[in-house]
Structure to design on (115 residues):
């Protein structure tokens, strides 16, 4: 994801998720499908990291805990192509407008840094 972000000069949207996470699936089926969210996602390199199974799940889990101080799911973080945190969003929220604002703020922060 970092290499692609550098090549395309886009921020990285990391979705820490789990196979057994019902709140993660809720966000995917109710928020991620919103047309405004989908349009905003075009501004990011999208990365999905599973923390409860699959390849490298323990590594993903450790990164979420050590770097971001949480093991909660879902957890969303936006990084610049040079691996600096731009924004974070904790948990499931039924208010799609809060998620849209999070994405818009991350884009604004990315642009303001002139990266």
């Amino acid at each position: 994801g970092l290499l692609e972000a550098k090549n395309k000069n886009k921020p990285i949207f990391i979705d820490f998720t789990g196979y057994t996470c019902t709140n993660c699936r809720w966000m995917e089926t109710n928020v991620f499908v919103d047309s405004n969210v989908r349009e905003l996602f075009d501004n990011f390199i999208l990365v999905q990291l599973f923390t409860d199974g699959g390849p490298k799940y323990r590594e993903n889990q450790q990164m979420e805990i050590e770097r971001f101080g949480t093991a909660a799911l879902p957890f969303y973080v936006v990084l610049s192509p040079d691996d600096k945190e731009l924004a974070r969003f904790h948990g499931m929220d039924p208010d799609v407008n809060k998620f849209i604002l999070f994405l818009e703020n991350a884009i604004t922060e990315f642009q303001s840094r002139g990266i």
